[in-house]
Write a structure and sequence with these properties.
Strand order of the largest sheet: 3-10-9-8-7-6-5-4
Shape: globular
Order of helices and strands: HHHEEEHHHEHEHEHHEHEHHEHEH
Number of helices: 15
Strand content: 5-15%
């Protein structure tokens, strides 16, 4: 089975792990697991970044133009069930904490996350070890979600309404629920954002003059309704649609908006990760199409190569302001 991360990553970590286990010979399973925990991330650079990442203003905060994403940590691969499980199991709370520390070491100062038991534990571990990475929480006040009051205990700088829920509520004629969410976030003392996959949602919010502080804008309209695709194309894809023309449409909207926009899925959920050149081209495209006051959110799975330092280097190269 093809995995969209193989060539991009090179399976560097897996090879080093096999070599290590061969060299030590027969040891107990418990010892192997403990050693493997460190071995999996030993290819990460231990040197702090020598050059700062470019930043944008998000309210009174300085936010790097590369923000670490959450989806691989939560096991949301947007590809296959196996890949989702692979990611979720690898990203333990301990590894997630080390990931945050590594992001900060490489110059990334902000993490967009979902509130889960694992992320709360990872944040606690990271902070105990001196990590001061800023937090942007994706939330939606669904019945299964914790309260905004509980989220605020983590001291996020911002809370954004979940994009998939945003799109669904707008289609159902319930946009006011999203607007009310923005007001509640402000009442709790955090910056308020709205995430969406549909460019028309962003346009409507701007036309109506909402008081949100920023947008999260998906490069791909993956929540496009089945009926809309049938009408436009006469057919529908299996699972989520990633159409080549979508980034052009969303980035045009981002450029027209006078608020900071955080673009996400710039790598099409791993579909643009077959080579490092392809990854670099995606970063070049993204920064060339968005405003200087915008940033990108990128989910990373640094199991096989140091994607954190690699992506930070692309941001320094193409994201200068």
């Amino acid at each position: 089975m093809k995995q969209p991360f193989n060539e991009c990553a090179g399976f560097k970590g897996a090879s080093s792990r096999r070599a290590f286990l061969t060299s030590v010979g027969a040891i107990t399973i418990a010892a192997t697991a403990a050693i493997g925990e460190d071995e999996e991330i030993k290819h990460w650079s231990k040197e702090p970044a020598k050059e700062q990442l470019p930043v944008i203003n998000l309210g009174d905060y300085k936010v790097t133009r590369l923000i670490a994403g959450y989806n691989p940590i939560g096991g949301h691969s947007h590809s296959t069930w196996h890949m989702s499980v692979h990611m979720r199991e690898w990203f333990t709370a301990e590894r997630t904490a080390e990931f945050l520390i590594h992001c900060e070491r490489q110059g990334i100062n902000t993490w967009q996350f979902d509130y889960t038991d694992k992320t709360v534990k990872a944040i606690r571990i990271a902070r105990e070890r001196g990590c001061q990475i800023q937090l942007i929480c994706l939330h939606a006040e669904r019945p299964t979600d914790v309260s905004l009051k509980e989220v605020m205990k983590l001291n996020p700088i911002a809370i954004a309404h979940h994009g998939g829920v945003t799109d669904s509520l707008f289609r159902a004629g319930k946009a006011q629920q999203v607007h009310d969410f923005v007001k509640k976030v402000h009442d709790h003392g955090a910056l308020a954002g709205v995430s969406a996959h549909n460019p028309e949602v962003i346009k409507r919010i701007m036309d109506e003059g909402w008081e949100n502080d920023f947008f999260m804008c998906c490069f791909y309209y993956v929540t496009r309704p089945r009926e809309e695709m049938l009408k436009q194309l006469g057919k529908v894809p299996v699972d989520e649609p990633f159409f080549e023309s979508d980034p052009e449409e969303m980035t045009a909207v981002m450029r027209s908006v006078n608020k900071p926009c955080l673009g996400f899925k710039i790598l099409a959920a791993g579909r643009k990760c077959w080579s490092r050149r392809q990854v670099e081209d995606a970063f070049r495209y993204a920064f060339g199409k968005i405003k200087r006051t915008d940033a990108v959110i990128v989910g990373m799975y640094p199991r096989f190569s140091d994607e954190v330092s690699e992506n930070a280097s692309y941001t320094r190269k193409y994201g200068k302001v």
